[in-house]
Every structure is written in structure tokens, then in C-alpha cells.
Design a protein that fits this description.
Blueprint: E1 6-10, E2 13-18, E3 23-27, H1 30-47
Antiparallel strand pairs: 1-2, 2-3
């Protein structure tokens, strides 16, 4: 199955989150953060399997700077 990774840089770490499962991990590089998230998500899914369903639709939007 394919899952989504949302990655943000926080200080010296890249933090990766999978919104479909709520799993979070980190790494010193983006690649490390994704690899760690993959492992965390696989372990989570072993304990809490999810039924197969359509992948979410991901997009972006803008908000005025004064908001």
C-alpha cells in the first residue's frame, strides 16, 4: 500500500508524519526520516491493520498573509 509522508524541518531534525495512520518519526535527513517513518508505520500496521481503501487526495491552498 502507498501512504503519505508530510515532512517538516524542526531545528536539526526532519520530522515525518503519516496522516493516514498518525505515525510520526524523525531523522537527520529527509531520507532517514522517511525510512524511520516507513518502519514505524509498518510496526503500527502489524498491530492495527487497516482495510484497503482509496488513497487520499493531497493538495495545497493559500491564505492571505494578514490572516
Amino acid at each position: 500500500m502507498t501512504y503519505t509522508a508530510v515532512i517538516c524541518k524542526e531545528n536539526d531534525w526532519y520530522v515525518a508524519e503519516c496522516p493516514e495512520t498518525g505515525t510520526v518519526s524523525q531523522g537527520h535527513t529527509i531520507e532517514d526520516a522517511i525510512a524511520n517513518l516507513r518502519e514505524a508505520t509498518a510496526l503500527y500496521l502489524e498491530e492495527f491493520p487497516r482495510p484497503a481503501k482509496n488513497a487520499p487526495f493531497l493538495t495545497t491552498f493559500e491564505v492571505p498573509a494578514y490572516a
